[in-house]
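INFO worker-7 received task bundle
INFO bundle size: 2
INFO processing item 0
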Amino acid sequence: MSHQPPYLDQLSLRIPEGAGVPLTSDLRFTARGLGGLVLFAVLAFLGSLQQSWWWMGAGLFGWTGLFLVWLQFRIDLENNLHPRHLQLRWRFADQPYRAGHEATLSIDLTPSMAPLFLRRVTFRHSVYLQSFFPPQTPKRWALAAQKTHRIAIQLRSPILGDFPLYGVEILLTDRFRLFEHQRYLRLPATLRVMPQLPMANLQRKGNQTRPLRAVANGIPQRRPGSGAELHDIREYRPGDSRRSIVWKHSLRLRKMLCRDFESETPMTVHLLLDIGQSMREGTLGQRKIDHATSVAIAFSKTALAQQDRIGLITFDGEILDHLRPERGKKQLHRALKHLQSLHSLTDPRFSDLTLPEMFSLTAGFLYREGFLASPSGRAPCAARPMLHYLWEIIRNHPDLEFPESWKTDEELVMKVLRSVSGYIGLELPYRYHQWATQKAAGLATALEEAVRSMHGGQMIVVLSDLGDVLHWDRVMQSLRLARQHRHHVIFLSPFSPWFAIPQPERDPTIAILQELLTLEQWTWRRRLQRMIGRLGFPVLSVDPKEAPLLLGERLQRLRQSGRI
């Protein structure tokens, strides 16, 4: 469920010159403690002016009490917050975390000696996770010594992926809430979120799908297809071949009946997934890329369960990765792992950051996680000491390799930063410069790559909104190449009411412009449908819940028609 990434302090790194260790917050007064300090100071001052020993004694007694509370609180912190004394760990649920669903994650705190009074807990985690406490959570925890206390938190991730959990920030107070101490505790782990689309009990137009047939000893079982043996006689469905109609039975029962034949021929389906910026717009969890990944996973699971081959190509202006067509459960795990990594990429082509941005992200991460800071310990480290620190990580770690070649010093520094970012768990944002390479070139390259990796007469599914594909000359050449190899290409384009992004109330002029742009998009889409339709390839927009079944029906019709 989770794994612990390696700690940087296990490498015995030394702090370079011009850097220091981030300082945790010292003991500071709360509002109540500061008010008491001012009150006792006023009493002592008035007592000295009026020569009143009662007031002066009250002021000095109050200062003495504050000092004793401060001393006791400091001793309690030293005894409890030492790593050898404080036990802190994540507790993951036994069930897998699903995208879009709430799940409970808890931490166990065990003070070893004196009791602690916990005022606030803040969880540090990936930006893709949402965290909040249950309604019945108390505002203050009294942690008794030698007793484990479990603090629960509700987590929700709208999307699937592997997301890092960095640690916990706690705010401790004394018994009287006069002083407080803030401490950040590193607790690195990874939370794996599985897809939200159910893999069973899928429905299309109110009809329940039939369960998949079992696979015995890795041999595909007979299933409806274009074979020679009769499987069943059923009612006619639009798209069935006329050769499969049973005319005698149809005339006798006064309804159209068709034959279903059995086939053991495995199929090959290539999924082409657009991961560009236009697919990432909108609310997290309701974006086009989120729906497209759910469709890809559901359809892949259904096809692989029938011993078909599934391939996956992710592209923007160029191909990110190509998963060759294979069959079996391992292929589904490979596809799922690749789809989970689409939100934070270390590939320099698809996370094209400038050198100052990489410096800022890395320095902020090292400071926030308590590894490296400025000499004062209160700000992120400067560039040169941080580079010496990262250089030492690469030199001491056996799994990290030093860059082999570079042209400029800036290129060397960027390679060093990227090499260490994946090791320390730094999330890099997705950024691909669209103007450098157009989306049409990436789509055409993905189509050509899919055609080359399959035999003739297979199926290619393109999951893209086609919104920023402007130049279609090369794309049409790739589609003609696919038609020459007798491939069946389907464009599943998420541009429909199911993918509409809700907009807040705006100025009437902006609303009119939005409607005009939407109308222009629909006009452009109709042109694309006619242009691609001339080659015999459909462009479809359907509900994401029905999309996997629609693709399955298309694959079934191809088997029955004998085209594949």
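INFO item 0 finished
INFO processing item 1
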Amino acid sequence: MSELETFVLGYLEQAGGIVEPAVYGIHEVLLPEEAAERWHTAVYQRLAFADTEDEAVTRLGYNHPLVEQMVEEARGQTASTQAYINGLCLNKKDLDKLAVKEWVVVNGRVSSQRRATLARARSSYVRFNFKTAVLSDEKQEQIVSVLMDAHTGYRVAGAELVEMQATAIEPDSVLQSLPDAPLRWRPRNNRPLKKPLDQRTLAALLERAKTAVLHELSDHLKLLQKRVSRFRELDEARLTEYYDELERDLQHRLNRASADRRASLTDKLEAVKTERGHKLADIAERYQVRLDLTLLNLKVIQQPKLLMPVNIENRAAKISAYAVWDPLRHRLEPLVCTVCGRPIQRAYLCHNGHLAHEDCLAPGCIDCKRVFCRQCADEVGECEVCHEPLCSYSRISCHECGRGTCQAHQGMCHANDGQPVDLTVQTTPPEPEPAPPKPKPKPALKTSRRAKSTRSRSTQKAKTAPTRPKMPKGVPKPQRIEVVVYPDAVVAFALAARERQIAMRVWELKPTDGIICTCECEKKDVCKANNMVSRPSEWQPIEDQIRREITKFREEYGLPSKKVRFNRISSLGGQPFPMSSFKLFGLWKDKEALAKTRASFERIYWR
């Protein structure tokens, strides 16, 4: 069967016609009245695709008017389709509590909304099918598909499960009765979107789908660019060697030529140089890697989901977000970055109410430590003196020169003859003033030797014995401190009699953040050490830095240093081994990890 025969018979059946099997190369076709009227032909047709002597048979070819009408209609019809996922279980309790437990907002917290109810909604996915053509010295074509979430605007990971379950061609009664889920994204520098499948939403989603395709093909394009660059270097080397030889030969002939031949040889030399430039430009054009994306069609997949509004807030901002439960994958959908549109594991809440990755944040203000995302980067400037990031809320404008400075350098914006003070210039410190003469001590009264010894013992005891804090009612008095050293953490326990735990303080080394201290003690939320982040020191050993923290913990409970014991555990679930002195190991001794931790701390908290 030829391609023309396959197309015509298939299109006739799609239009609702009845096609009988061929008898002696002749097909009998019964067309619907609408199709026959549209094509200006009879309802009953006898069609053939080869020469025949029967005059009552219509012989179809590529230029036949009936075939051309079918081709025009096929071009005007879209190849897009729609599928549904039915029969999902829509029962889930405490969705807001699950969001509070699983979502991580570094500079904020997730909380439930009052009188919030669980809602069912219809969620839509859009699969874009592209034909990609990579053009270089050769042409490579392939089909690339991207499944996008119309409500969040990002690419769906693990799209195979969604496409495999989308088998229904009609929605069931439950899915058909549900309203569309609200859109939780908006195009950059554009007004909000309203419906998930209208023209504006699909156009904005198409741009993000193209970006996802470019990200998927980036590794292949880099390898291809590397190979093409190598071929370009070889061709340029061969071309350069060839034209260098021509120029040397012409220059040699020009030096030895007579006066009447110099003009023609000079013209030839200029022509060779011009031709070299054109050839090099042709090579540069030939070995460029270009990507051409052509949208073939799209597929819309719909399924029911559960939604519940929750609050995400900190001291500066408060926003409302939706906790979305996917009954197909049985998981809570992650938060979405407002800047890049990708899912977030550890989110930061911008001062203007945007959720963003750590990499999508603008430099933090040096004074107020407000967090801004890249979309709000225009609100973060710099101090005219120290050139550190400074937001518009903390900027102090000078009444004399109009420059903006931070709080530490207020008034230094015009102190250097009308110009800001240059902090990079090292100035010699002023000489210290001579100290005033000390007054002569008064003569001590004569006391007995027994009184002196009693006084010295009481003074020494007062200096060495730390004062024990007054514990709340029902909390026993601490007796000793137990310290356990892990490869990436140090845990200190304050224990009372019978091994009863009063407090636990943990110092954990995280290269992506810093040294994070968490504390569970009788002070609860009033504890100043809880959720504190510190930077690994550069000028002293890390043992001294952590030892000072352990000393502060010990002094809070008024215990002497002899009441501290150290243990070491090499792995989780391992057995503790006692240590004679405090010593760190593992990640604490990794110089690269410490340097990365310092860099992360400076990027997050010092910018």
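INFO item 1 finished
INFO post-check item 1: The mean pLDDT is 84.
INFO post-check item 1: The CA atoms of residues 478 and 496 lie 4 Å apart.
INFO worker-7 idle
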